Amino acid sequence: MKALRRFTVRAHLPERLAALGELSTNLRWSWHGPTQDLFAELDPGLWQTVGHDPVRMLGEVPAARLDELAADDAYVARVEAAAAGLRDYLTRPRWFQEQTGTAVAGIAYFSMEFGVTEVLPNYSGGLGILAGDHLKAASDLGLPLIGVGLLYRSGYFRQSLSADGWQREHYPSLDPQGLPLRLLTSEGSPVLVHVGMPEGRVLRARVWIAQVGRVPLLLLDSDIAENDPELRAVTDRLYGGDQDHRIKQEILAGIGGVRAVRAYTRAEGLPDPDVFHMNEGHAGFLGVERIREYVAQGLDVDTALAAVRAGTVFTTHTPVPAGIDRFPMPLVRRYFGGAHGESESALLPGLPVERILAFGREADPAVFNMAHMGLRLAQRANGVSRLHGEVSREMFAGLWPGFDAAEVPIGSVTNGVHAPTWAAREWLDKARELVGPELVEEARGWEKLSDVDLGQLWSTRNVLRTTLIEEVRRRLRVSWRQRGAAEAELGWVDEVFDPGVLTVGFARRVPTYKRLTLMLRDPERLRALLLDPERPVQLVVAGKSHPADDGGKALIQQVVRFADDPAVRHRIVFLPDYDMSMARYLYWGCDVWLNNPLRPLEACGTSGMKSALNGGLNLSIKDGWWDEMFDGENGWAIPTADGVRDEHRRDDLEASALYDLFERTVAPRFYDRDAAGLPVRWVEMVRHTLQTTSPKVLASRMVRDYAEQYYGPAAAAFGTVSVQDYAGARAVAEYRRRVEAAWPSVKIVQVDSAGLPDTPVIGAELALTARIDLGGLRPDEVAVQAILGRVSPDDDLSDAETVPMAHVEGEPGAEVFEVRTPVPLSGAVGYTVRVLPHHPLLASDAELGFVAVAGA
Ligand SMILES: *Cc1c(COP(=O)(O)O)cnc(C)c1O
Prior knowledge:
Elements: H1 19-25, H2 33-42, H3 44-49, H4 54-60, H5 63-70, H6 73-91, H7 95-98, E1 107-110, H8 126-141, E2 145-150, E3 158-161, E4 167-170, E5 182-183, E6 185-186, E7 189-190, E8 192-196, E9 202-212, E10 215-221, H9 229-232, H10 243-268, E11 275-279, H11 285-296, H12 301-310, E12 312-315, E13 326-328, H13 329-336, H14 353-359, E14 367-369, H15 370-377, E15 380-383, H16 386-395, E16 411-412, H17 419-422, H18 425-435, H19 438-441, H20 454-482, E17 502-507, H21 523-531, E18 537-542, H22 550-564, E19 572-575, H23 580-589, E20 592-595, H24 607-612, E21 617-621, H25 624-629, E22 635-638, H26 647-671, H27 680-693, H28 699-742, E23 747-754, E24 765-773, E25 782-791, E26 797-811, E27 814-822, E28 829-837, E29 852-853
Parallel strand pairs: 1-2, 1-11, 2-10, 11-12, 12-15, 15-16, 17-18, 17-20, 18-19, 20-21, 21-22
Antiparallel strand pairs: 3-4, 5-9, 6-7, 8-9, 9-10, 13-14, 23-24, 24-27, 25-26, 25-28, 26-27, 28-29
Helix pairs in contact: 1-6, 8-28, 10-11, 11-12, 12-28, 20-23, 20-27
The structure holds pyridoxal-5'-phosphate.
Pyridoxal-5'-phosphate binds next to helix 8, helix 23 and helix 24.
């Protein structure tokens, strides 16, 4: 018989062990080994069974065992010490508290998924785990950050395989009461967030709080009796359902999320956040809700928009156009429109429907684009690696017509990973011993690793590889049992993988651009690598395909079928159900982390960073983070065939380069041993990676970059526009209206040059004078620039230098601007002059997207 519903009853803890309750509900345990040890010791076997989940552990451990440990003074003392350590972690001033420059009152960080721990499986992959690492690093650094997202009844799917290697999906449902969550309450009763739906319906959600160290994570949950069955199901699954389902989720996350933040800060007596961070476009509706709030306070829409923009940061995560979240315009109109076709939004009273729709406009008028909305509602935006910043500036250049891609105001912050979560205990303990706790908690002191003995490093690598192999065999056995094999047929599983063999990992989601099967391009060559008698390679592969993507499932099946062959199955495995609990073993134990995306479609990629943190050497296409962090000594770059148009040929070329690297460089180096059996060159690369790459890939570095380059400036901008009853926002709104009205008449009437001799040499001074009609704007309301650079036969400028021109005289309609500047280049040089709007409260002169160029 199946239960209709489930719920979890928490055990009553003996008084002397009461602190275990506190330790189980703050997710800091997920990156704090000593706390995990305390739970494991309650019952090591049960700890495995409950999937390393402290809350479940306390629910299931027999009372007699708890009583026994309550009488054990040494255990009780360790519990007390761990609890005291947690309290100290939660209250001690940290990096942020030592900063004097940036005054940030609070940051609300919105994401559709959060991967904090496998115990709270509220993520599908990279984006969610990045968000989890962001919260953890924000906690370590003491940032006043609040996470906001949804709590899904069954998270993302769990993957298994059919006998013939086809992906199967399962959606086990979660009981929030059994998770490390508490309800947001007000005066003793649960807070319910309300969001309007079409036809006068109301979507309600309760708000769960997961405590991630110092950072609260608010998760909205619509599965409550107050909703009708359709609305109860809004938070049923991550990335499940159709567009209609998805827009409801995004409305709840964005609009409901802001309402949850307000309820939370009110309940806790905290200041209102001044910075709102949209982690990808899904959360973009938070911006229109904030405009509504200001309009309700009496601001006009333009002023409200200026205020919202000042404090909003938007991060884009995908260079794949298909990866961008887009809705049919009529669907958005249905949710945001007026009740009876009125022009005012019923969901967001005070906002004209057309204004809302315009935020998401793109080239295709039938489509509402969430990334475009993010860019229009945020004054600051970024991609997630240097290369991705560049690609994003090109991809979104259409929103800034007339500007070169390089000038599009989208920057970059390279992603990072949370070391205490992803580095093996062995490394963390070694670090504490060598450097003190800073390395672990504050990510300092990596340079001291240069003193570590190579033999020691190698023995740790060997231990981690062996641990991985045990996990590979365990999971492979479970998988084969699920595929229908009998235990008696599985003796060979104990012989899978060899602790002395070069171990390569490839694990990621399975969209086409990641090219899961590139390694199978030439199956014979792969087989030869795996079975090489002298220098074999063993390969562990994992990854989930989106449930609706049969193409991806076919790729998985191809790998599974190859790996099922008895001739190679001891050297290559596909492990189903890639998630955080599996991934960590791979990052710890793989010698080489393989990544072969189609450049430049990998925005950043973080799995390789986690491998590097453990001394893994990356072997990757130079895409995402590897494009900027490959240094010749921390791994290998697979040469790309970027220019080659024919996809198949490109795959052939890149696959062949991949095999070459393994055959000629990677395997020989791994097996090149000194008299003591040590692969000296290899371990030197490991040490170099730990010492110089690790500090760059840390989430603490990433969050510090956000704090300094984005949150601080956004909070400052918000402060400036909001003082004196939003006088600054009014000024920006008023300025923007004037620019929009004036711009069609802004013209560069005439440009004259003087000063150059007949045969100028580099450095000769050029004097430029421009006469400009400003269409009614004042000279101090624009920036006039001379652009000098190399010129092509058809007059395109490149390597251009921008020189500001000064206003010298004039009259309305013919203002004169001048500059004297040395010619920066030799050869064919050209120049032009342009005008941009300029206002001290804008983040850049490109922000409004207006430019007038001479002659255009
Ligand atoms: C880090 C991580 C990812 C993201 O890795 P990519 O390199 O960005 O593909 C996905 N899933 C899990 C379980 C991870 O730990």
